[in-house]
């Protein structure tokens, strides 16, 4: 048998592609063309024993579907503008409409969209039911290991359990992040067999390990403006948000979003520092004047008390330890020392030594070189009838539903292209 389509991977992108390649109702809703009902034979091959395994963990189990906020910093790629040829500012509406077409009620939480149930299982069940409705075959617990074009321009797909043949192939194997949930770099081997360049997978959306000893800060959370800098203090990225201190690592959404830049810099052999402004609403001059006034009005109070209104008490202790002062009272500090105290709060610096491993990363950076991908169809420009989608592409998004949006939009583009094909 020759399938019309074989999809490698039953994650969000792969299942979306399979559904959009076979579903007349979804085609009509989103393509706004005359009915071109097609009967296509489709097979999904998935290495995990269950479909959508990684989806269950998305958004801490709540499954953040999409996000209405859209800016240039939402996606990273070596081919900088490629993501924005694929996905646009209003595409969150398309993702939400697609979910609703599958029977999922969507709710808005300040621009973050979730299933109304706040359960990722709702999305997985909806995908599963539509696959069954569209008579899409699914083989689980089977690994795609080889891919070869035949003389008749069909493709032979080799798995650990046999051989299959198809007119169209969608590679939706995902990235190497979260191997416990099925993360793998197997897709890179398939790209290699097709002669498609790729960037090796590296962790992204992950913690950053630092060389400073900060066990006393474990469990502390603090809002900060975080700046990624190199050894010459050049700024590479900056974002405001909540930082979580976890022993030898910095975590939290703001750190996750900056981990792509930090990871690339480390990979290039650069020194990486994170500079935390713990009070970004107050400039350093005003902070210094506050400390002077505090010293005048409260000379008997401790240094810890002076910082108490600005930062968490454990952070105050850490900052004072970095200053290495023996003084205990604010009256014992001179103006130069007060300036240093203000500087520490505005520029608390940590030196990054590594990113967390793939097992602790939410997504991977790296994947197929997008210069070889048509952004309208997700088709390889140098290989007929082969599509690459989702995390296997060299594009990764920040936290907040952007990676799931990417998976669905790329899956829809590939699926509709196949639906349109003869």
TrEMBL record:
<keyword id="KW-0274">FAD</keyword>
<feature type="domain" description="RsdA/BaiN/AoA(So)-like insert">
    <location>
        <begin position="202"/>
        <end position="363"/>
    </location>
</feature>
<keyword id="KW-0285">Flavoprotein</keyword>
<dbReference type="InterPro" id="IPR057661">
    <property type="entry name" value="RsdA/BaiN/AoA(So)_Rossmann"/>
</dbReference>
<feature type="domain" description="RsdA/BaiN/AoA(So)-like Rossmann fold-like">
    <location>
        <begin position="4"/>
        <end position="415"/>
    </location>
</feature>
<dbReference type="Pfam" id="PF03486">
    <property type="entry name" value="HI0933_like"/>
</dbReference>
<dbReference type="InterPro" id="IPR004792">
    <property type="entry name" value="BaiN-like"/>
</dbReference>
<dbReference type="Pfam" id="PF22780">
    <property type="entry name" value="HI0933_like_1st"/>
</dbReference>
<dbReference type="InterPro" id="IPR023166">
    <property type="entry name" value="BaiN-like_dom_sf"/>
</dbReference>
<dbReference type="InterPro" id="IPR036188">
    <property type="entry name" value="FAD/NAD-bd_sf"/>
</dbReference>
<protein>
    <submittedName>
        <fullName>Aminoacetone oxidase family FAD-binding enzyme</fullName>
    </submittedName>
</protein>
<dbReference type="InterPro" id="IPR055178">
    <property type="entry name" value="RsdA/BaiN/AoA(So)-like_dom"/>
</dbReference>
């Amino acid at each position: 048998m020759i399938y019309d389509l074989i999809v490698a991977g039953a994650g969000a992108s792969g299942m979306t592609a399979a559904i959009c390649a076979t579903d007349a109702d979804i085609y009509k809703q989103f393509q706004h063309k005359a009915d071109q009902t097609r009967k296509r034979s489709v097979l999904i091959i998935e290495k995990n024993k269950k479909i959508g395994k990684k989806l269950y963990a998305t958004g801490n189990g709540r499954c953040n579907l999409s996000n209405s906020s859209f800016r240039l910093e939402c996606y990273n790629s070596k081919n900088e503008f490629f993501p924005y040829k694929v996905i646009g500012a209003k595409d969150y509406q398309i993702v939400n409409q697609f979910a609703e077409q599958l029977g999922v009620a969507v709710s808005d939480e300040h621009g973050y969209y979730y299933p109304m149930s706040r359960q990722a299982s709702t999305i997985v069940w909806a995908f599963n039911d539509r696959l069954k409705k569209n008579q899409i075959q699914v083989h689980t617990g089977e690994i795609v290991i080889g891919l070869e074009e035949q003389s008749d321009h069909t493709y032979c797909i080799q798995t650990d359990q046999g051989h299959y043949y198809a007119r169209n192939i969608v590679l939706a194997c995902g990235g190497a992040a979260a191997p416990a949930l099925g993360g793998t770099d197997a897709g890179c081997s398939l790209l290699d067999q097709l002669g498609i360049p790729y960037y090796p997978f590296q962790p992204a959306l992950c913690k950053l390990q630092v060389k400073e000893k900060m066990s006393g800060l474990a469990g502390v959370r603090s809002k900060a403006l975080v700046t990624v800098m190199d050894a010459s203090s050049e700024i590479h990225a900056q974002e405001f948000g909540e930082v979580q201190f976890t022993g030898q690592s910095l975590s939290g959404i703001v750190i996750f979003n900056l981990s792509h830049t930090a990871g690339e810099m480390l990979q290039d052999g650069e020194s990486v520092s994170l500079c935390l402004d713990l009070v970004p609403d107050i400039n350093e001059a005003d902070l210094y004047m506050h400390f002077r006034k505090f010293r005048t009005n409260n000379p008997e109070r401790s240094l810890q008390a002076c910082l108490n209104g600005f930062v968490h008490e454990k952070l105050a202790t850490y900052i004072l330890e970095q200053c290495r002062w023996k003084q205990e009272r604010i009256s014992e500090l001179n103006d130069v020392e007060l300036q240093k105290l203000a500087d520490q709060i505005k520029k608390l610096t940590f030196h990054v030594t590594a990113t967390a491993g793939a097992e602790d990363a939410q997504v991977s950076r790296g994947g197929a070189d997008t210069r070889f991908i048509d952004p309208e169809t997700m088709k390889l420009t140098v290989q007929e009838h082969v599509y690459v989608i989702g995390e296997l592409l060299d594009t990764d998004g920040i936290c907040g539903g952007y990676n799931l949006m990417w998976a669905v939009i790329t899956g829809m583009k590939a699926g509709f292209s196949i639906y349109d094909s003869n």
